[in-house]
């Protein structure tokens, strides 16, 4: 399934009217996003929705595994996402309005962002099972905007190189060519967006770790200026160069995501420099 871009979703919502047919069209469009989220959630949870192929029906999880040979790697997410998606859908149908600018949009999160409801490993078996006490600032901003965090993605261990190999999930490869790298260290995020598992991907960039996966997977990545996005709650590699940015299919999707995650954070003094700065 190819997801509609976030821009397409917003356009569908903005054309909503009191006409029942238009409302049904809107709900159908939004349901496509939720259906994609639910199918990704089912893959992560290990359930077995069926898909039709040339060789007959087979479990979707098996089809994905066969297509990517088990190399598009994501960590187990949380089962509450289906309930969150259903609640977002119900809100939209009742109010014909969004809860936030990223209402119901599925996010694939690099596994060095702290999440209080999922383990954060930085790709290292040394941190296997560790659940941080609170979310990273960026994660909180995404949730407040209505986004759904589907899963954590593989990365090069502790984000120290560009090949996306970890002791947690091994090697991630490029969905377009399984003999090639997806870049790194945010390669798991890039691969999952290229494979249409989510709409928004979040990565971190110390030297080239957002831009490399974006390039390798035919995506758009933005490395923000240090101080524009808080680093609080992100496992560091080099604090003087680390920053976090979106990896998406379109420029507009990436910019809309960046607009959500920027802002002052008292836990990261560098963000004080961006207060009052105009973003063109």
Structure commentary:
It is a single chain. This protein has helices at 6-14, 20-45, 60-68, 80-95, 137-144, 187-194, 211-216, 251-261, and strands at residues 50-53, 56-59, 106-110, 148-153, 165-166, 170-171, 200-205, 220-221, 243-248. It is of the alpha/beta class and 280 residues long. The longest helix is centred in the N-terminal third of the chain and has 26 residues, at 20-45.
Task: Return the string of H and E elements.
Answer: HHEEHHEHEEEHEHEEH
Radius of gyration, in Å, reads: 18 Å
Percentage of residues in DSSP E strands: 5-15%
Instruction: Enumerate the strands of the largest sheet in spatial order, edge to edge or round the barrel.
Output: 4-3-7-9-8
Cα end-to-end separation: 34 Å
Major sheet summary line: 5 strands, mixed
User: Judging from the principal axes of the Cα atoms, what is the shape?
Assistant: globular
Mean pLDDT rating: 78
Counting DSSP E segments of at least 2 residues, the number of strands comes to 9
Number of contiguous helices? 8
Estimate the helix proportion, in percent: 25-40%
SSE class: alpha/beta
